[in-house]
Task: inverse folding
């Protein structure tokens, strides 16, 4: 059982690991994502050179950047940097999960940041689909920085 | 999905720009509606000092991907990379212009990786995202 605590700069430790819930890539989710970003490219809805409709490459970005929510209550957060590498296409019907590890934390101009490296993998094969790294601000418990 | 392989944009050339209008319903769909969310709870966003709910920064990476998939197709979906900084918040109701300019080409094994300088800017001309994206050229077999 997870004992959630409010995130703070002191609480986050370098080397700390996160694991997301698993997630089934469903046609409805691809449609919803297409609506959200207004991108209905045929790659996501028709057969193509990659052997069938694929999901948007960044569709699972939220699974990655929400990794810290698997351990912490995060009242607010701002996203500072994002790196992606799209290793293999995301395919409908895949059951995927993201794995993350805090690789750095630092203070810059009075604000606190944490850096998480992640991989999103196909749960069946173990293959890495997307990998990358992101930096997120860690707000003080009082709320946003003034 | 067919890409014209005969005309590669030269280094320094711009890709066709995209215009993206960010609506609350789209942000809701992207982020999932939650109370006490800077993205989907306007009252909470105001309480935290923002004039309107913020689009999730990650939404702009989808706009960049759209531009890169239009350009490279398969070579971005499998083998693409992106590295960006979010330099300014994007508020619900704003219109973003997504730009890309060919930065370089480099041999990568038997393939060519093309790197694009990318940015998003709001209607005031303020940059909200800067970075690079890349992918493999001429891999589309369709």
Result:
């Amino acid at each position: 059982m997870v004992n959630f605590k409010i995130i703070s700069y002191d609480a986050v430790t370098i080397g700390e690991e996160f694991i997301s819930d698993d997630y089934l890539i469903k046609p409805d989710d691809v449609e919803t994502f297409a609506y959200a970003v207004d991108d209905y490219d045929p790659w996501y809805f028709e057969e193509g050179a990659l052997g069938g409709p694929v999901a948007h490459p960044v569709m699972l970005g939220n699974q990655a950047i929400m990794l810290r929510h698997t351990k912490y209550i995060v009242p607010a957060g701002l996203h500072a940097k994002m790196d992606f590498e799209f290793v293999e296409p995301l395919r409908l019907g895949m059951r995927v999960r993201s794995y993350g590890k805090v690789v750095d934390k630092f203070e810059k101009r009075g604000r606190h940041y944490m850096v998480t490296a992640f991989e999103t993998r196909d749960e069946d094969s173990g293959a890495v689909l997307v990998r990358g790294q992101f930096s997120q601000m860690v707000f003080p418990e009082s709320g946003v920085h003034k | 999905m067919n890409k014209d392989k005969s005309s590669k944009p030269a280094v320094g050339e711009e890709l066709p720009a995209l215009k993206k209008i960010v609506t609350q319903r789209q942000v809701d769909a992207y982020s999932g509606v939650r109370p006490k969310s800077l993205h989907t709870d306007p009252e909470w966003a105001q309480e935290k000092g923002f004039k309107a709910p913020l689009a999730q920064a990650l939404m702009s990476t989808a706009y960049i991907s759209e531009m890169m998939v239009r350009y490279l197709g398969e070579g971005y979906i499998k083998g693409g990379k992106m590295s960006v900084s979010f330099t300014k918040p994007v508020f619900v109701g704003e219109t973003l212009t997504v730009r890309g300019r060919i930065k370089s080409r480099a041999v990568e094994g038997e393939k060519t990786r093309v790197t694009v300088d990318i940015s998003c800017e709001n209607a005031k001309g303020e940059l909200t995202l800067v970075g690079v994206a890349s992918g493999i050229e001429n891999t589309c077999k369709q």
Notes: Chain A touches chain B through 38 residues (CB under 8 Å). The CA atoms of residues 37 and 59 of chain A lie 10 Å apart. The mean pLDDT of chain A is 94. The beta strands of chain A are 5-6, 17-19, 23-24, 72-73, 79-86, 95-108, 111-122, 128-138.
